[in-house]
Amino acid sequence: MNMPAFKTDAATAVATPAAASVAAPVVTMTPNRPPRAEKYVKMAKEAAVRVVPPLIVLVLLMVFWELVCRRAGSTLPPPSKVFKDTKELIFDPFFDRGGIDKGLFWHLSASLQRVALGYSLAAIVGVALGTLVGQSVWAMRGLDPLFQVLRTIPPLAWLPLALAAFRDGQPSAIFVIFITSIWPIIINTAVGIRNIPQDYRNVAAVVQLNPLEFFGKIMIPAAAPYIFTGLRIGIGLSWLAIIAAEMLIGGVGIGFFIWDAWNSSHISEIILALFYVGIIGFVLDRLIAGLGKIVTRGTSAG
Amino acid sequence: MQAYLKLDHIDKTFTRGNATTEVLKEINLTIDKGEYVSIIGHSGCGKSTLLNIVAGLTNCTTGCVLLENREVNSPGPDRAVVFQNHSLLPWLTVYENVRLGVDKVFASSKTRSERDAWVMHNLNLVQMAHAKDKRPSEISGGMKQRVGIARALAMEPKVLLLDEPFGALDALTRAHLQDSVMALHQKLGNTILMITHDVDEAVLLSDRIVMMTNGPSARIGEVLEVPLARPRKRLELATNPGYLKCRQRVLEFLYERHRFVEAA
Q: Is the Cβ pair B83, A217 closer than 8 Å?
């Protein structure tokens, strides 16, 4: 036990004079500190470069909006009025007075839950169908024309049919999300599967992977960049569709909140809701993009 | 003596629409256990097709491949391939790439820890153990090819198939890797079938060189024994008369009798 400790002591004892005698490297080490401060300055500068321009644009837009809508008889409220009208909604998003008289948090979370459910189903079924179509020529010949026609149907056109089938708003909204976001997932997955290099298939053949292992170990990772492109388009579409669908089905949800605000002429509330819808759509997109980046790490680079 | 690997009357024709091209004609070749055989020929002569037939990745039109007197016509780890472009899976680390094959081949015969040790053993053989956690994109071309070799060796193949394994490497890396392959062959005694278009490489590494005529309908033009003692040393061979004679023979075959004719 003592020996190693003694040894390290000896080692440092030997090392110190050596380091002292060779003064030059020690001197070169010290300038490392000022650059660190410089690094922070540089980082701050980079952040400023990124943040300042959009801020300026935002402020200019606000000023413009304020000026245009301030006049008497203007149909839309200026930002100052929007803020005054919606203060309660902004600062207390969690109130719940029963029925649909709830804070924005509850509306948004209801919409997000529908999207989460419909989109997850679409992701699972979409990747599975995309794999089938990408892998089998016969499946492609049979299904591709059908997909190409169905994907052009606008999301809301499905809603009456869904309502007829499910006889309830909730599953119908989820179905609309599902049917909207599934097409880009199917099509991109199929392209990704079709583009798997022959080399990887050869490797799998030599190693004798069975179809299930081939799917998990070769197909999915190899096609992941394509799959995530599809998933990203899909999440954007489903967020677009849910707002419209909720306007029609009613109940709790940000779509219906907007429609309700319109019916009660609370224009400021509509503007606030649009702001939240935009922010959440942006976050959802970033989320899938970020997830894709993590998952496909290494796949794209040869 | 019974042939270990036997290519028996192999023909290969490709059909596209109405056009059929005969790529290989009447390929007969027997390879003994532990032998190192190279196939050399101009590009387009179908040597890669031949290797793919032995690997089972392509089916031959007529004839068959016999390994230990058993017909083989589908791919399998008993004929592991080292691909020209390494073909490592970019989303797996070096270790995982080798482990993929090991897990399949030794699924029932080795425990988890034994498989782990076996992967590390093979990475050590090609001096790549230090990079086991790197991804293929983080290592050099020569290193990738080493991992490719480790992956193939780790499957304990009866025949190791090398498809122009050094073709994409620079000259210095190539020489280094050739030495490694020679050392491995010496140590493990594998049976190796290698495709190459490099005369020096063929003479340096092989016991026999199979020279193919130009396609279409490529045949085996000549088979040359390389009677050089092993272990062979690159530098000493440079002035060895036996080496020079073999080299001369191959060059004559390729550039006089079967000169590459540019497609019109």
A: no
Place of tokens 């680079």: A301
Rounded Cα distance between A298 and B138, Å, is 9
Cβ <8 Å between B91 and A224:
yes
- For residues B155, B157, B160, B163, the Cα torsion angle rounded to the nearest 10 degrees is -50
The pTM for the full model equals 0.78
The dihedrals phi and psi of A152, each to the nearest 5 degrees, come to -85, -10
ipTM over 0.85: yes
Q: What is the DSSP letter of B69?
A: T
Here the CATH number for the domain that contains residue A93 is: 1.10.3720.10
The answer to whether residue A71 sits within a structural domain is no
Strand spans (E) along chain B = 5-16, 19-31, 36-40, 62-67, 70-71, 81-82, 159-163, 191-196, 208-212, 220-225
Q: Is A33 domain-assigned?
A: no
Q: What are phi and psi of A55, to 5 degrees?
A: -65, -45
Q: What is the pLDDT of residues A154-213, one digit of tens each?
A: 999 999 999 999 999 899 999 999 999 999 999 999 999 999 999 999 999 999 999 999
**Residues of chain B with C-beta less than 8 angstroms from the C-beta of A199:** 83, 85, 87
* Domain assignment of residue A15, yes or no: no
Three-state secondary-structure class, residue B196: strand
Q: Residues 6 or more apart from A251 whose CB is under 8 A from it?
A: A100, A110, A169, A170
State the CB neighbour count (10 A cutoff) for residue B112: 8
Three-point CA angle A23, A4, B130, nearest 5°: 75
Within-domain flag for A43: no
Cα–Cα distance for residue pair B32/B192, rounded to 1 Å: 10
Range of the domain at A174: 85-296
Q: How many domains does chain A have?
A: 1
pLDDT tens digits, one per residue of B30-84: 999 999 999 998 887 888 889 999 999 988 899 999 999 889 888 988 999 999 8
Q: What is the DSSP letter of B257?
A: I
CB contact under 8 A, A205 and B56: yes
